[in-house]
Each structure stands twice: as structure tokens, then as C-alpha cells.
Amino acid sequence: QSVLTQPPSISGAPGQRVTISCTGGSSNIGAGYDVNWYQQLPGTAPKLLIYGNNNRPSGVPDRFSGSKSGTSASLAITELQAEDEADYYCQSYDSSLSGMFGGGTKLTVL
Amino acid sequence: QVQLQESGPGLVRPSETLSLTCAVSGYSIGSGYYWAWIRQSPGKGLEWIGSIYHGGSVYHNPSLKSRVTISVDTSKNQFSLNLNSVTAADTAVYYCARPRSGTYYSAFDYWGQGTLVIVSS
């Protein structure tokens, strides 16, 4: 069981907006550690989508955005497209210097 | 362009030691950054195994710490993972990765393609 909790699955129709939550605790997200988000397509390595809570690497569309508040973080995807269907993971660190990932959320585009 | 490539046996027998190497190109490990190992069991999520700095500082996942050794060889520009006393639960795709910035608490920006290791007799 992951320390960072994500919904196992979400779905949305093309063009819609969806959000994925990532809930941690006072020793990780709540302690001020940044949250990062990754997209993983089937059979491929994860790809960095959001770093430092709300920053996009070069090449990531601005349809993807991140936010953080208290002990939680969220990834929002607007104008949903078929190509967004993938697994999404949040990641952070905790005060014991351990890295950690959320359990992952499978996004289905209807 | 930084590239990472995992290599090692695809099959390991139970109770033995899993050994993997990550070869780095496009960047000198000795110049900095924390280099990480991450795994993903079939159909499951990602699990951080540990990270090593070129100077030797190592951080491990507490759940694996007693079985994990991570080392770096700057002369070969590679770093390695040893996981001993493996069981079927250690069957996974193992990734090596490098973070985006030189600080420890950074996102993983560069990933290897991953290598599947199956633990079975």
C-alpha cells in the first residue's frame, strides 16, 4: 500500500476536464516536499509531466497542470484527448529522505 | 542528450542475488546528481528502491534497505543495484533514472527503458 494515495481509476470524455488527486501526510507533502507527476503509456518508461508541484517540462502541453495544498496535490488535464489515456503517478519525498510514489491512476478516455 | 540503459540477467533464482547495472551516456556521473533505481511489479505501481550520489551517499527504501546495495563506478560511468535473498515478489521491471536537478529532492527526468527481471526456479 502506497504512502501517497491516488484513486485507482478515473474516466472522462474527449474535451472534458479531469483531475487526479494525490493525498499524503504531514511527513511528506505536508512537510513541504514538492510533488511531481508522471505519465506512463503501456509498455514504456514513465515520463515526467509536472515537476515542483506546478511546472511543466519543455514539450508538455499546457493542458496539464499541477497544484498542491496542505497534504494533497492534484493533476488536472483539460481538453481531454484519446492520447491522454495512460497511467498517472504522483511522487514526492518524506522527512526520512525516502522517495515515494502514489499507487497510480488509470485514466480512461471514453 | 542523457541516456540510461539497464542491463543484467532476466531470470534470477529465489534466494539468490539480483544484480543490475545502469550505463549512463551523455553525462559524467562524477559531475553530480543522485542516480536512482525504481521498480514496477507486473500490473502494479512504481516503487523507489534507492538513490546514490557520485560521492557515495546512498538512500534506500526502508522496506528494502536490509537487502539492497547500490554502488557507483565513475570510471565506467555506471551505477549498480544488488538485491539479495530475492523472492517472487521481487519480479519486476527495474528502471534506472536521473533527476532533473542536482538536488536530492528532484523529479526524475531521465529514465532507462527498463529491464524485466523474473524471480523463478
Please name the defining characteristics of this protein.
heterodimer; A: 110 residues; mainly beta; six-stranded mixed sheet; three-stranded antiparallel sheet; 0% helix; globular; B: 121 residues; seven-stranded mixed sheet; four-stranded antiparallel sheet; 51% strand
Give a verbal description of the structure.
The complex is a heterodimer of chains A (110) and B (121). By secondary structure, chain A is mostly beta strands. Chain A has strands spanning 9-12, 18-23, 36-40, 47-50, 64-69, 72-77, 86-93, 99-101, 105-109. In chain A, strands 1, 3, 4, 7, 8 and 9 form a six-stranded mixed β-sheet that branches. Chain A has a three-stranded antiparallel β-sheet with strand order 2-6-5, with no helix packed on it. The radius of gyration of chain A is 13 Å and the shape is globular. The termini of chain A are far apart. Chain B is an all-beta fold. Helix content of chain B is 0%, strand content 51%. Chain B has no helices and eleven strands. In chain B, strands 2, 4, 5, 6, 9, 10 and 11 form a seven-stranded mixed β-sheet that branches. The N and C termini of chain B lie far apart (39 Å). At the A-B interface, β7 and β8 of A face β5 and β10 of B.
